[in-house]
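Most newcomers find our protein records easier to grasp once they have seen one. To make this concrete, we reproduce a full record directly below:

===
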Amino acid sequence: MSTYEDRLKALRAQLARDRLDGFVVPLTDEHMSEYVGAYAQRLAWLTGFQGSAGSAVVLPEEAAIFVDGRYTLQVREQVDAAHWQYESVPQTSIAAWLKDHASQGARIGYDPWLHTRAWVRQASEALAERGAELVAVDTNPVDAVWPDRPAPSAARLAVHEDRYAGKSAAEKRQEMADWLTAKHADAAVLSALDSIAWTFNIRGKDVDRTPVALAYAVVNADATADLYVAPEKIDEAVVQHLGNAVRVHDRAAFPDALKGFAGKTVVADPERAVAAIFEGLEEGGAHVLALRDPAILPKAIKNPVEIAGHRAAQSRDGAALSRFLHWIATEAPKGGVDELGAAAKLESFRRDTGALQDLSFDTISGAGPNGAVVHYRVEEKTNRRIERDSLYLVDSGGQYRDGTTDVTRTIAIGTPTPEMKRRFTLVLKGHVALARAVFPRGTRGGQLDVLARQYLWADGLDYAHGTGHGVGSFLSVHEGPQRIATFGGGDEPLQAGMILSNEPGYYKTGEYGIRIENLVLVEERAIPGAEKEMLGFETLTFAPIDRNLVAVELLSMEERAWLDAYHARVLDVVGPQLEGAAFAWLTGACAPL
């Protein structure tokens, strides 16, 4: 198994033993997570792909890997074209590809704990047109040939105190119970890890960069709950925190427990609960209501305590990032800084706060052409020196008990070209347009996306990712249901209390990348004479935007005023936390245009 070619051959041999003519390998876990524990990194083990979203299909004579526009460059660098076809989504899908490539009568395997029921239905219908069938497996064949597959994490749970959560777990369960009663339902299955962490005010260390624990839960209409988690992960403090209304079971008992709801009405989320959960409930005689997980929206709408925590985390994080920006402005022009060293230095500034629990994702530290790889992950073989007269893109964040941060800055090292300045300024104009937006209650994120793209479009440019994603409170750095995007989401009405990113960008393949990202809070806006309830954004992130990259002549007076006001606010919030040369640098970086 020393090469990815060996692994592909081993999987094909296992499929032959299992009498399968193909198998689908998604990058997820039994909880439909975006970020997964090492034990569930099947796609990376099989192909070498290190991105956070993708899937693969293996047939006897061909194989394909499916990624979206964020990973167009990355997949070609990490996955061998001699063995894998590159497929782009949403332009195509696994179902569509299988309809064209599976053989007549083929049996294509899938793991029912790694796919939604909707996906199973879509793929089954596509294969039926081919005279083929989709077959559920009891044992994942990738696991059968992965000799050193890591075990799931045994890390213990931790209590997330009410002073950070803003609402007790008992209150949350009661609100869910009231919701279940209104839906005439007896129980709701929670399988999304961040939903479970939020509902029970617990956190874990089972997924790198995301403080969640591997568990399942059922919340009942009487406000009691059943939590399914490995026994060794529970200590006395967690038992006391959960209280008598929460019954704790071994996680391994969950599949059989699904069969114990005969005659009951049970809610399961069709987007977040895997096909095996629906099958288990129905096999046991439950009536299943396919409704959204009742934790999703309350989790997304932050309460006043969570909002205050976010502000504190953003202030602390902004000071750490500003120290880093001063450091890199001083050291990078000397020619001795590379991507790995810069990422390590930034993490050290965050660690110096004394409050950092973890990074919120692996830092994207992209020099020159590596900055054009949207979700670039630096490693030794790709590590690049940050050169003079180039752009350096750094996208990073921290996990603090009071909030989760995510911020991107693009920095000119030396003298930028006129093209770099123009395109940076077009991105900035889009960022400002979104930050200044005022919109009626009920507006969807997808309706706002064009605000960030309009200036790039006018120059015949664009970017292949969404403009904004939701962010959790000491939880996932990517949190739904809110998004600002023209594709793959963006249909959720924005509500006061939601936190999203504002991150337009531009990427010139082989040369440089640009992205400007702040987090924003949706807030109510009082407008004299308004005939509708209006909303807008409060910017939460505080760190200077590189003035050396701004083509001032391209900015309107309103845009200049926004940037000057933003920098004045950065100086007010971050300035008192800095001193000496770092403070002097910040004062210059935040000077009015």
